[in-house]
Specification:
By secondary structure, the chain is of the alpha+beta class. Helix content is 36%, strand content 24%. The protein has one domain: Alpha-Beta Plaits (2-Layer Sandwich), CATH 3.30.70. A three-stranded antiparallel beta sheet has the order 1-3-2.
Length: 72
């Protein structure tokens, strides 16, 4: 992604575990909503490092409402 695209990302949902976030990301993308995961957990190798912050599922601002509605 380009820098402008990164500035346009918002948090759609926060999860405790990367696996949960990956499932949600896959479901969103299967429904035409691009998503990405942001976590401070060494790429999933150290899940407890990011335990306080959680695993964030990001979408474009334009898709925020649609993504949140889908995830509910």
């Amino acid at each position: 992604m380009q820098r402008e695209e990164l500035d346009d990302l918002v948090v759609a949902q926060i999860y405790s575990y990367r696996a949960e976030a990956e499932l949600a990301r896959s479901a969103l993308e299967a429904n035409g909503i691009e998503a990405m995961i942001e976590a401070d957990d060494c790429g999933g190798q150290r899940p407890l490092l990011g335990a306080n912050l959680g695993v964030r599922l990001l979408v474009r601002r334009a898709d925020e409402r649609k993504a949140k509605s889908f995830l509910e």
